[in-house]
Amino acid sequence: MLFELTEEEILIRDTARAMAAEIAAPLAPVLDRGEGREAFLKNLKTFAEAGFMAVNVREAFGGTAAGTVAFALAIEELGYACAATGVTASVTNMVAEVIQAVGNEEQKRAYIPKIADGTFPAGAFCLTEAGAGSDPAGMVTRARRDGDHFVLDGQKIYITSADYAGIFVVWAVTNPDAPKGKGISCFLVEDGTPGLVIGKAERKMGQHGSATSTVHFENCRVPATALMGRLDDGFRIAVGELAGGRIGIAALSLGIARAAMDAAKAYVKERRQFGQAIADFQGIQWMVADRETELEAARLLILQAAAKKDRGEPFGREASMAKLFASEAAGRATDTALQLHGGAGYCADYPVERHMRDARITRIYEGTSEVQRLIIARDAFRQ
Predict the structure, then answer these.
(1) Catalytic residue among 292, 296, 366, 370
(2) Residue 2 included in any domain
(3) pTM of whole model > 0.70?
(4) Strands (E), the chain
């Protein structure tokens, strides 16, 4: 199969690469120290104005309408420069796409343009709970009907961008008597809604620039018009949108891994031992060759999943394969990159230790590697 990029896709990739190198990459180590939030939000606005927060959204709603392949290419480049920027853009695109896919016309026109132009710094996807991570159907957050409103009560955890999101896509149980996974609905909750309370940001191993927080719903009243899609049909929406989100995290994984390996290749060409650059040693060359091969394979899996989504074909299995392989390959690539730096790689003076920490979460969020294997295996047995 020939993956020949269109002129538009090449333009988006190259623009993302240039912008990320100019404004995101210099900020990445600052964010890693827990600083630079104001500059980060300014960058998010700049990327939104350039079209990177609604890449696969129709132009009628302010989107770029460039497709999933372009989205994957953009997220890879953002992740290469700054993992926090990459994951924020990936999730925000995901929020815009789910509103476009299942929202009504009023919801689309009310919220998507604000995501696309950066009025909302980010969007948040509120699905995970303490007892409902890999099994989201086990959620307990409730939404009860009260006249012309729904009242939400519960807690979501590990919510990306919650600190600065302008709109939250929230899943809650609306029919507790329904079979598991059948009585869940999806709501749009704006930042500032009374009863929506953002907890403090988690202290994480990596991706420090991306806020990850608990979100509490305490007698949170939203109008009945906040219901997105059909009542009790939210779980189907969640499962469908998670597949698209996995393409984004796969691309992010590839971007982080590329950054680590590029740093390592530059280092081994300069580092000399026994009278020559260590890049001249066969052992070093084989380590690089293995990782480069895996990253190329990851790229092809990502493009395949993205292309199938753009053609309107089923892509869930391919998205899981891409996410599984790319995130696992990123773990190996960042570990190899650190090893190639020797003792220097273990020091914060070099970026590879940050890349290694940033890459670790990609095997967990948007579905763990173990969940991806379950999805792939079940589909293989069905076939």
Answers:
(1) 366
(2) no
(3) yes
(4) 123-126, 142-146, 149-160, 167-173, 184-190, 196-201, 212-223, 227-228, 272-273, 276-277
